[in-house]
Design a protein that fits this description.
The chain is of the alpha+beta class. It has 2 domains: 71 residues, Beta Barrel (OB fold (Dihydrolipoamide Acetyltransferase, E2P)), CATH 2.40.50.580; 145 residues, Trna Endonuclease, Chain: A, domain 1 (3-Layer(aba) Sandwich). Helices cover 16% and strands 42% of the residues.
C-alpha cells in the first residue's frame, strides 16, 4: 500500500486524549495530528521519536494531518489502525497470503454475528466462505515478541467468540494478526493485559479458527506484508 498523499517527517512531542498527537515537522512547523488509534499504544509512542504524518485531502477537516507511523532506532511502527485492513486485502488479492489464497471475491465490513461486521469476507465457488478478522499488533512485550491486545478489549474477545460460531455453522474463519513493527519475530496473546481475550483466542483456535500472523514491511512511502511469523500460544 502506498501512502497518498506521501508521508511527511517530524518528531512526536506527545500523544494525548487518545486521538490527538502534537508533532514538530522537520521544517519547524508545529501541528496537531489526528491519531487514529484507540488503544493504549504501549511501547510505540514515546516523545522524541520520529513521526510520519500525512496531510488531509479534505480542506474542511478539523485536523489537517494524520499520524501514520512512529519510529525509534530504525524500527518503524504503523500506528494508524485504519490502514491494516486495506494492507491485508491487497496482500490477499496479490496472492502473498498463501493461507488465504484462492478466494476471487473479497467483501469488506459484512454484517455477521451479534451486531458485528467482519473485516473481510472471502468467497469462492464450491468453497465455504472465510470470515477474516484483522488485528493490528504494535505492543512489544519482550525482545522480538509482540502481543495483542495492548489493553483490555471486550470487542476483540467477542470477535473470537463470533468467529468460533462461524466455524460451527460450517464456514471457515481466521484471525489475521498484522504485526506492524519490524523488530517483532513472533507474537502472542497478551494474557497479562487481557486474560479473557487470551482464553477466547485459544478456545477459538482449538475449535477450528485459523490464526495467522505476518510482519509488516516498510519501504520509503510504502508498506506491505512481509514474512509470516510464528504465534506463541
Amino acid at each position: 500500500m502506498d501512502f497518498d498523499p506521501p508521508l511527511v517527517r517530524g518528531t512526536l512531542i506527545r500523544r494525548y486524549k487518545r486521538f490527538l498527537a502534537d508533532v514538530e515537522l522537520d521544517d519547524g512547523k508545529l501541528i496537531t495530528a489526528h491519531c487514529p488509534n484507540p488503544g493504549s499504544m504501549k511501547t510505540c509512542a514515546e516523545p522524541g521519536w520520529t513521526a510520519w504524518v500525512t496531510p488531509a485531502n479534505n480542506p474542511k477537516r478539523k485536523l489537517q494531518w494524520t499520524l501514520e507511523i512512529l519510529e525509534s532506532d530504525n524500527c518503524p511502527i504503523l500506528v494508524n489502525t485504519g490502514r491494516p485492513n486495506r494492507i491485508v486485502e491487497e496482500a490477499i488479492e496479490s496472492g502473498a497470503i498463501l493461507e488465504l489464497a484462492g478466494y476471487p471475491t473479497l467483501r469488506r465490513e459484512i454484517a455477521y454475528g451479534d451486531g458485528s461486521r467482519i473485516d473481510l469476507l472471502c468467497s469462492a465457488p464450491n468453497r465455504p466462505d472465510c470470515y477474516v478478522e484483522i488485528k493490528n499488533v504494535t505492543y512489544l512485550v519482550a525482545e522480538g515478541l509482540a502481543a495483542f491486545p495492548d489493553g483490555v478489549s471486550k470487542r476483540a474477545t467477542k470477535h473470537m467468540e463470533e468467529l468460533t460460531r462461524m466455524v460451527e455453522a460450517g464456514h471457515r474463519a481466521a484471525v489475521f494478526f498484522l504485526v506492524s513493527r519490524t523488530d517483532a519475530k513472533a507474537m502472542t496473546p497478551a494474557d497479562a493485559i487481557d486474560p479473557s481475550y487470551g482464553a477466547a483466542f485459544r478456545d477459538a483456535v482449538d475449535r477450528g479458527v485459523n490464526a495467522i500472523a505476518y510482519r509488516l514491511e516498510f519501504d520509503s512511502n510504502r508498506v506491505f506484508t512481509g514474512p509470516r511469523i510464528p504465534i506463541e500460544f
